[in-house]
Design goal:
- This protein is mainly α and 68 residues long.
- It contains 3 helices and no strands.
- The mean pLDDT is 83.
Length: 68
């Protein structure tokens, strides 16, 4: 859900012309320039770690934990 929200916020910022009026943001300019892209990168990294296949050792360990 967070990734969709970030993409929608990117779209809305472009629609209202935020890049053309960046000087209005003052010190908060760091939020859309630094922190929002970092949030997107961490979301993508989290999805990668969740979607990648687990090694056989982890699956065997999980099976052993379920039996005991």
């Amino acid at each position: 859900m967070g990734t969709v929200d970030l993409v929608v916020d990117y779209y809305h910022a472009i629609q209202v012309g935020l890049p053309a009026h960046a000087e209005w943001l003052g010190a908060t300019y760091a939020i859309p320039i630094i922190y929002v892209p970092l949030l997107m990168i961490t979301h993508i990294a989290a999805f990668y770690f969740l979607a990648r296949p687990q090694p056989k050792e982890a699956r065997a360990l999980a099976g052993d934990m379920a039996v005991s």
